[in-house]
Amino acid sequence: MIQQEFKNYDQQKFFKDLLAGITVAAVALPLALAFGVSSGATASSGLITAVIAGFIISFFSGGFYQISGPTGAMAAILISIIATKQMTGVFIATFLAGILLILAGIFNLGKLTSLIPGSVIIGFTSGIAIIIALGQVDNFFGVSSEGRSIIEKFTSYQKLGFAPNSSAMIIGISIILLMAFFPKKWNTFIPASLIGILIATMITINFKIKVPTVGAIPTTLFPKERLHLTEISFQNIKELFAPAFSIAILGMIESLLCGASASRMTNKSLDSNQELVAQGIGNLILPFFGGIPATAAIARTSVAIKSGAQTRLTGIIHAIVLLLSMFLLAPLMSRIPLSALAGVLMVTAFRMNDWSEIRSLFSLKLTSGITKFLITMAATVILDLSTAILIGIAVGLIFFIAKSAAVEISIVDVHPEKIGKPVSALADSWSVIYLTGPLFFMNVEAVKEKLTQDGTKNNLVLSMRGVPNIDLTSVKMLLDFYQNQTENNR
Q1: How far apart are CA 303 and CA 71, in angstroms?
Q2: 452 and 340, same structural domain?
Q3: Which of 110, 118, 164, 413 gets the highest tally of CB atoms within 10 A of its CB?
Q4: Which of 147, 19, 132, 152 is nearest to 77 (CA)?
C-alpha cells in the first residue's frame, strides 16, 4: 500500500504535502490545546498527543489521509478517570486501550462499526458535543466548580458561588462570534480559531487583563508526568480495564467513521484493520510521553484532503510543525486565555453535530431513528460512553425485532379459474391463508389466533411462499394446528 502511495512521488507532490501539513497544523494547534484542557489534563498533554500521534499513527495508518490527535470525545471519558485515578490512571488506561486496538486490528474487527445503526452514532456524537460544551462553562465564565459529573459541577455553584469574570466572558463570546461569521473561503487558508486565539492572547498580554490562562507549556517530549512501567500493576489493570475498553471502542468508532468519510472524499479505500493497528501502536506509546488518548479526527482529516494531501507525509509534517511550535511558541501559548479555548470548543461542539442527518430524521418523522437518537444522546450525557453505545444498539435491536415480528395474514376464497382450472362447486368449501413475513417465537401466538378465528371455510390451504424463514416454535405450532384441524375433519 505504501509503495503504491509513493509511486511516482516527486517534488511537486512533496510541496503539496508540505502545504497541507502546515495548514493542518494551524487547525490542529488550537484544538490540541483545547482538548488537552477540556479532558482535565493540561494543554501541553494535548499538544504532545498531537505531535506523537502525528508521527506514529500517520506512519502506520491504513489511509494516507488520516490525521490523528486528541479529540473532544476522548476528553469526555478522561474527565471521570482523572477525577478518581489522576493522570496515572489516564496513562494506564490509554496503554491498555492501545493493546486492545492492536488486537482488534489483528483479529479483523475493523468491520464491527458497520453493525452500529446510523441514528445511534448521530446520537452518540450529539451527546459528546453536549458534554464538551457544558464542560467548558467554568473556563468560559472564568469560574470554578467541583464534582465529576456535569450535574455535580453545576450544583457545586450553590456552595462555591457563581461570579463570572466579565473579561473571560467577553473573550469567549468574541471567539464564538468570530468563528461563526468568519468567511469560509478565508478559513481555508488560516482557521478562525487560530486567529481568534492569537488576538485574544495579544490583547490580554498588552492590556494585562486578569483571566485564567493555559499555564506553562513544557518544551520537551518527556515531561515529568508520564507513564512508567513500574506503575502498570495487576490491580491498576483490573480497576482501569473498563475505561480502557471505552477508550478502545471510542477510538475504533471515531477512526473508522473518519476513514469512511475520508475514503468517500478521496475515492481511496481505508484498510480498516491496519488503521486499528496504527491507532493501537500510537496509544500504546503515547502515555510514555505524557500524552492522552488519540484517534483519527474528521476535522483535521478533511482539512488535509481539501489542502491537497498526497501521502501520509502530510500527517508527519503537521506533527513536525506542531513540535516546532511547542519549542518556539511555548511562552506565548502559556498566556492563552482559557476562555478563548472554551469558545473554540463550544463552536467545535456545535459543529460536531450531524445537523443534516438530524433534520432528516425529524422531517421524515422516522420514529425508530428519532427514538434511538434521543435515547443514545441522553445515555451519553448521563452515563458513560460505552454504555450509551450498548444501549443505543439494544434499542435498535428491539425496534428491528418488533418490525420483524410483524406478519401479514390474509384469507381468501379459492378461485380455480385464476389458475386455469374449471369452476368447481368443491372450491366453495376451501379457503387459502396467505402468510407473509418471518414466523418465529415473537409472533407465533398472533399467527395461531388468526388461523383459528372464524371466517375460514371447511378446508384450508396454507400458502407460505411469503415466509422467508421459520423457527422451531412456529414449526411446532403449525404441526399442532394441522393435527387439530385433521382431527376435526378439516
Answers
A1: 15
A2: no
A3: 110
A4: 132
Q: Which of 54, 73, 16 lies closest to 301 in space, CA to CA? A: 54
Q: Specify whether 304 is located in the same domain as 381.
A: yes
pLDDT digits (tens, 9 = 90+) for 185-212: 887 678 889 899 999 999 999 999 999 9
Q: Comparing C-alpha atoms, which of 32, 72, 75 is closest to residue 53? A: 32
CB 200 within 8 A of CB 179: no
End residue of a domain, out of 365, 399, 433: 399
Residues 6+ apart with CB under 8 A from 187: none
Does this model's pTM top 0.85? My answer is no
Q: How far apart are the first and last CA of the chain?
A: 68
Q: What is the DSSP letter of 427?
A: G
Task: Indicate if 19 and 145 belong to the same structural domain.
Answer: yes
Partners of residue 459 on adjacent β-strands: 430
Please say which residue of 346, 379, 399 terminates a domain. 399
18-74 pLDDT tens trace: 989 998 998 899 889 988 888 888 889 999 999 999 999 999 999 999 999 998 878
- Count the domains in the chain: 2
Angle between helices 72-106 and 234-266 (to 10 degrees): 90
In whole angstroms, give the CA distance from residue 140 to residue 155: 17
Q: Are 117 and 396 in contact (CB under 8 A)?
A: yes
* One domain for residues 355 and 454: no
Q: Using an 8 Å Cβ cutoff, are 1 and 300 in contact?
A: no
Q: Are residues 218 and 71 in the same domain?
A: yes
Q: For 287-335, what is each residue's pLDDT tens digit? A: 999 999 999 988 889 889 988 899 999 999 999 999 999 999 999 999 9
Separation between Cα atoms, residue 355 and residue 126, nearest integer Å: 9
Instruction: Note whether 213 and 33 are within 8 A (CB).
Output: no
CATH number at residue 474: 3.30.750.24
480 and 361 fall within a common domain:
no
Cell of 352: 460536531
Structural domain span for residue 439 = 408-487
